[in-house]
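Field log, afternoon session.

UNIT: design team B
ACTIVITY: writing a sequence onto a fixed backbone
BACKBONE:
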């Protein structure tokens, strides 16, 4: 699902040229303000769903919510298909009335992008929690990083596909992937932690054995069976603790421990968004055009997307070896240095130099995307889950992603305006300052969470 969502995100930047043209499938050519709103409204979709997400997570479970991540993507695909199709097929009939109402208007684009945000909001909460609850402590970091690896791989694929594949082919590809995702997770049981909290002890043990790769009980080997039974009993006692666990209260959210964690989460989220990692890719074509490079902006955007993918891959290989801090802090410092270099290049280099040495701006932006993807992008939501006390894990994660959505909306809203009004250089200086400040604060206060047990 992360791959599918990434493709949908990556689709936007190379498609801007089409949306600004007379051939815009959504009606008249977009204005700068309309494109800015379409780019930032993703965060509003994420924000809306996170206001209510903690309740279904704790009531229906992780797996049911995981199914929900695919639904907005299917609606988003149908939204784009409706522009050229008037079919009365079963797939389109369920949403046809909404689409008929909005027609081929720019509002259709807003709805599609809003639903992309809904998918992202659900995914960034439920999947890190799901992974944290089923993974062994020594591989949790690697598995969590794979989530962002697939997301960034999807963004890179989306950049390439939107550049070289006809516009109307994309919906069929992405809708098929969303359906495949829904089919693949059917055999996966609910997490044992959730089942224990709901009092479903037999199903919890089966789930525990499934994710621990333990064979079913075998009377022929009583010693091994007793060891496995003891392992589950210990796990159950750790999860349940108090036999009558209480729900999280407002007092739990404002306890000294929780407030410190929320402060660290706020710092992480501010660094994640204002570092410009996602915003740069979202408006990559415009940024490279502003740098005056003679290299095709869409080609440059594709190279930057691949650099981000390589950064995530490096994080997957290193996170459980080096730990979280040793990737986060260098990631922030490296990103800040790269953005400072881009700002200096734009400020002091002549247009002729930029045109003749277009590779330099591309190399620096690619370095920024690699460094921000080495730690900050893949580790933010993993560390949020690992920092939060077990009792407020679900609601704390929802609050974190909701806050992220608000900040991201503001960043995506003002980023193109700042580039247009103040230039790429000023924006890069701002992002570099945030990265350096974040490196200092997190370097002093954030603990290492490698190997920490997730007991909820």
């Amino acid at each position: 699902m992360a791959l599918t969502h990434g493709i949908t995100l990556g689709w936007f930047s190379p498609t801007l040229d089409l949306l600004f043209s007379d051939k815009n499938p959504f009606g008249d050519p977009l204005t700068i303000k309309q494109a800015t709103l379409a780019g930032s409204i993703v965060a509003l979709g994420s924000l809306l769903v996170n206001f209510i997400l903690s309740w279904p997570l704790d009531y229906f479970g992780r797996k049911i919510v995981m199914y929900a991540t695919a639904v907005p993507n299917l609606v988003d695909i149908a939204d784009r298909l409706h522009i050229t199709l008037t079919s009365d097929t079963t797939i389109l009939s369920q949403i046809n009335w909404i689409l008929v109402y909005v027609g081929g208007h720019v509002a259709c684009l807003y709805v599609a992008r809003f639903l992309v945000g809904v998918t992202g909001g659900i995914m960034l909460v439920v999947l890190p929690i799901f992974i944290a609850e089923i993974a062994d402590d020594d591989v949790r970091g690697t598995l969590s990083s794979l989530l962002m690896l697939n997301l960034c791989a999807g963004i890179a694929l989306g950049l390439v596909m939107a550049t070289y594949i006809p516009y109307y082919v994309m919906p069929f590809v992405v809708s098929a992937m969303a359906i495949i995702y829904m089919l693949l997770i059917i055999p996966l049981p609910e997490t044992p932690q959730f089942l224990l909290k709901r009092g479903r002890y037999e199903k919890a043990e089966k789930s525990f054995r499934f994710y621990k790769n333990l064979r079913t009980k075998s009377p022929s080997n009583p010693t091994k069976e007793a060891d496995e039974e003891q392992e589950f009993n210990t796990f159950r006692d750790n999860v349940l603790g108090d036999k009558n666990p209480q729900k999280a209260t407002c007092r739990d959210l404002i306890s000294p421990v929780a407030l410190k964690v929320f402060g660290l989460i706020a710092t992480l989220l501010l660094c994640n968004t204002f570092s410009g990692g996602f915003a740069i890719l979202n408006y990559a074509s415009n940024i490279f055009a502003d740098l005056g490079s003679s290299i095709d902006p869409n080609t440059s955007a594709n190279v930057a997307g691949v650099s981000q993918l390589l950064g995530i891959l490096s994080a997957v290989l290193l996170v459980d070896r080096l730990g979280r801090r040793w990737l986060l802090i260098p990631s922030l410092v490296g990103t800040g240095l790269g953005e400072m270099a881009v700002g200096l290049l734009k400020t002091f280099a002549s247009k002729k130099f930029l045109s003749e040495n277009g590779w330099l701006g591309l190399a620096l932006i690619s370095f920024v995307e690699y460094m921000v993807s080495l730690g900050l992008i893949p580790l933010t939501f993993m560390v949020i889950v690992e920092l939060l006390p077990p009792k407020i894990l679900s609601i704390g994660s929802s609050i974190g992603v909701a806050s992220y959505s608000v900040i991201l909306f503001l960043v995506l809203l003002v980023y193109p305006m700042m580039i247009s009004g103040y230039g790429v250089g000023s924006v890069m200086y701002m992002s570099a300052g945030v990265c350096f400040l974040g490196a200092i604060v997190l370097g002093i206060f954030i603990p290492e969470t490698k190997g920490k047990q997730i007991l909820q």
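LOG NOTE: Residues 81-103 have pLDDT under 50 and may be disordered.
NEXT ACTIVITY: expression trials, pending approval
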